[in-house]
Amino acid sequence: MTQTDTSAAPDSILSAGTPAPDFTLPATPDQTLTLSELRGNPVVLVFYPADWSSVCGDELAVFNQSLPLLSEYHAVLLGISVDSTWSHQAYRQSRKLEFDLLSDYHPKGEVSKLYGSYDEKSGSSKRSLFVIDGDGVISWSYLSPVAINPGVNGVLDALDELKKSAT
Fold first, then answer.
1. Which residues participate in catalysis according to the annotation?
2. pTM: predicted TM-score of the whole model, two decimal places
3. CA-to-CA distance for 58 and 63, rounded, in angstroms?
């Protein structure tokens, strides 16, 4: 169950300087995660089209391998797609992913729409990245072509900029 309002969903992804829309999404069939509960540390949101697709698998594997680098910034990493929690559980286990995958399954794409990261034609999340600062403001965002793995470098650069501005 999400707690959001999609009546004013944007046409493009949200940009830096925009307050990150708060949401509550299922992390497992019986547990939810609320974005605002993570305030105080940076949060990296990785919206991706679908579990079990090759590009998404490669993208999430890169982020999983980069968890030690992200932890140096005290960043919390969250993957978000319109797949169900059951799919996410099986996918995380098969890929040995060590971060939460949140289900934007019902109402389908509601949070993705808030971030401008929903593709109506395919009915899936667009491949997009967001770095949210400890105050809940988007400090960096990037929309990638669906067939291209954007990697983690842009996220690491954005986290580095956040760290520099905090000192």
1. 56
2. 0.92
3. 9
